[in-house]
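Field reference: sequence -> structure
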Amino acid sequence: MWFGVDDGSSPVGPSDITFSEETSETSLKDVNLQISKPFDFSGRVALITGGGTGIGRATAIGFAEHGADVVLAGRKLGALEETAAMVAALGRRATVVPTDVKDAQACEALARAAQAAHGRVDFLVNNAGGSRAKDYLSWTLTDFDDMIALNLRSVWVLTRAVAPHIRAAGGGAVVNISSGASLFPVPHSSPYGAAKAAVNNLTAVMAVDLANWGIRVNCVAPGTIKSEGYVRAMDRMELDPDVAGGQNLVRRAGLPDEIAWPILFLCSPAAGFINGETINVAGGPVGWRQHGPVHAE
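Structure field:
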């Protein structure tokens, strides 16, 4: 049984939900064939925001290693070009589109540019985001709006712009990047935590809205990850990144690759029965309840 809306572009109401008990033998054979090579992304195209460093770069390289071409978006052109060179070294094509995801028109232009460059888009990874730590009363309304625009609104706007292209390609997947701060209270980051918690809910709603378009939508909530920015921040404070970020069951900070792999899995046919979920990838939950992750610009 599957369910979804009659028109993925319309709001969902009780009368919009449709049900089907029909599963053809042919479709099951197709699924089994895909799962036999679950990480073969040959001929596919992944659009990754925040693709210049950290999780975004690791995800782009992972897709390229398994046959996909990529579109890299972000604000730092130099970092994007470095990632593109790494992808090219693997024999895959990378298109760089400098984009500020807080700009709705820029997000729409990014979707058009990806389609124009590659003729299709199969996967969208909404990875761009960020936070900073401030005392609760030090956050201004402008700060709050900025956090919402970067971490929440961009996900809604870009997915809305890219989804028709994924549908035209025959369906695919969207993976949103949330945070452990969406699941547990983290001091001094209330706008960020609120935005990321909303991304978790948005993920589930988009999964319903886009189901009939053949688009699965899931979310990964990372713990503290040793991105370039995080390591620089720890160096400035003369802290060991693994000690500072190791308030979890494995007692270390995570690596960007350790988030990229779950992202690739969620885009693969092996995850074909996973939809609308938020997966916490944080080295275990115990430390989160006591300490929370360390934030770095």
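Note: Residues 1-26 have pLDDT under 50 and may be disordered.
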